[in-house]
């Protein structure tokens, strides 16, 4: 007898790039690479803004994980969008999903790892973690502000993160090094996308395992 397993799951991810960062990136791309004027860039943004606010932005309140990209707080009044502050916002209570945490689950942590174990040029790197309320949901938030000088040193940060859903020690660092040429590979955008990728793999494997344990007579219930 062949038992067919239909695998369905509902897990959503939202990439939330702040207006300041989007504007900085668009200026860099459209002015430097395409020769557009500042006025035309602003007009283009304003045209798309109503539809974005009406149909796209509200979706983040339903997401199970949000990767929020913001301007750095390490450099006062920085508007270039080159150094980023990135937050991984993880909804609590989602089946098969255990939020990543830094040091101590449920605590509020602020951590500057730069020093003997991590090379940091100006403006440095800062991590934080703690519980919050986001769009009416209880969440856990891990935040990285700044960027790595040497990706191989990420292993030191990885050793202080828990619930990564990695299969072996150093898998996050390995994946980051494998894609070192990708945009965002040295900052929180690459780090948190890599972690979310591992979490999705783990979700799938848990669901497959749970369905495989379902009795044959209840498989289609």
TrEMBL record:
Gene Ontology biological process terms, A to Z: reductive pentose-phosphate cycle
Record-annotated Phosphoribulokinase/uridine kinase domain positions: 8-75
UniProt-listed InterPro entries: P-loop_NTPase (IPR027417), PRK (IPR006082), PRK/URK (IPR006083)
EC number: 2.7.1.19
Keyword 4Fe-4S (UniProt): no
Protein name: Phosphoribulokinase
Pfam families: PRK
UniProt family annotation: Belongs to the phosphoribulokinase family.
GO MF annotations, alphabetized: ATP binding; phosphoribulokinase activity
Catalysed reaction equations from the record: D-ribulose 5-phosphate + ATP = D-ribulose 1,5-bisphosphate + ADP + H(+)
Lineage: superkingdom: Eukaryota
Record's keyword annotation contains Nucleotide-binding: yes
Keyword annotations from UniProtKB, A to Z: ATP-binding, Kinase, Nucleotide-binding, Transferase
């Amino acid at each position: 007898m062949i038992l067919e397993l239909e695998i369905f799951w509902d897990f959503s991810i939202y990439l939330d790039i702040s207006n300041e960062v989007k504007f900085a990136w668009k200026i860099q791309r459209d002015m430097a690479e395409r020769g557009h004027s500042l006025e035309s860039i602003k007009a283009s943004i304003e045209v798309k803004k109503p539809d974005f606010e009406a149909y796209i932005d509200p979706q983040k309140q339903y997401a199970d994980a949000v990767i929020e990209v913001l301007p750095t707080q390490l450099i006062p009044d920085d508007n270039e969008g080159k150094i980023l502050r990135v937050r991984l916002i993880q909804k609590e209570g989602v089946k098969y999903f255990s939020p990543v945490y830094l040091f101590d689950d449920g605590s509020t942590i602020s951590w500057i790892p730069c020093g003997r174990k991590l090379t940091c040029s100006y403006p440095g790197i800062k991590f934080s973690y703690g519980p919050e309320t986001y769009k009416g949901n209880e969440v856990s938030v891990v935040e990285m502000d700044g960027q790595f000088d040497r990706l191989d040193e990420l292993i030191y940060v990885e050793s202080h993160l828990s619930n990564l859903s990695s299969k072996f020690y150093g898998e996050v660092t390995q994946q980051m090094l494998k894609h070192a040429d990708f945009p965002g590979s040295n900052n929180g955008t690459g780090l948190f996308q890599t972690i979310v990728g591992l979490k999705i793999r783990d979700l799938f494997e848990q669901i497959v395992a749970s369905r495989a344990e379902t009795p044959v007579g209840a498989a289609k219930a």
